[in-house]
Amino acid sequence: MGVAAVIAPAAAFFAIGGDVHMTARPAPESEPVVVGDTMPCCMEIVAAAAMTPSIGQAGFNAAPDRMIAASRYRTVDRSLPVGIAPERGLQVKTILASRAISEAFPQIPSIGGVRSDALRWHPNGLALDVMIPNPGSAEGIALGNEIVAFALRNAKRFGLQDAIWRGVYYTPGGAQRGGYGHYDHVHITTTGGGYPDGDEIYFR
To answer: How far apart are CA 76 and CA 56, in angstroms?
Structure first.
């Protein structure tokens, strides 16, 4: 009499990951982005492969590795690929934020980083300008809001100091409106974490 045993796979699913530019014609300021509850960003996937060993005629003389295959583990590469921002001169937390945003939002056309500025954030590799396609459209505004929410959810991991979008200044402690500009891009400032030495691996 044949017996069929099915071992169902088990899987853990992952969730994912300073300067002021005024427009020529100031746009109305937005309501602050509200960050909802999310799952942790950096869970590792470990899946068991499904197996249906047939005992039947082989009986108990079959090789143990064929009969008692519990699970198979696969290695998951959790490293983030290089993003779209030029990384030269960026500090490690800024690079992590840039790579994570590039991966999470592939529709972003460009991310600016180090540049000359009267304030220290961009020249010192502490800031990013995440450019928003069609920033005045409903879709563009929604995308900017999503990026701000993503940055705030990952504030500790990114060493987030602040984000600025559509006249609102965001910090991990809250948001405030009033004359902050940034209507075509989301400005993100990190605490830096020092300059890379070339051996860093940035994880999701």
So the answer is: 35
What is the per-residue DSSP string for 112-163? Answer: E-----SSSTTTTT-EEEEE-SSTTSHHHHHHHHHHHHHHHHTHHHHTEEEE
Cβ–Cβ < 8 Å for 95, 198: no
Answer yes or no: are the C-beta atoms of 195 and 125 closer than 8 Å: yes
Number of domains the chain contains: 1
Question: Please, how many CA atoms are within 13 Å of residue 166, restricted to the half-sphere of its CB?
Answer: 21
Spell out the per-residue pLDDT of the chain, length 204, in tens. Answer: 444 444 344 333 333 334 544 444 556 666 777 665 444 444 343 344 444 444 444 444 545 555 445 456 678 889 999 999 999 999 999 999 999 999 999 999 999 999 999 999 999 999 999 999 999 999 999 999 999 999 999 999 999 999 999 999 999 999 988 888 999 999 999 999 999 999 999 999
Rg (CA), the chain: 24
Q: Which domain holds residue 92?
A: 1-204
Q: What is the pTM of this model?
A: 0.67
Tokens of residue 57, six digits: 């005629």
Type of residue found at 139: E
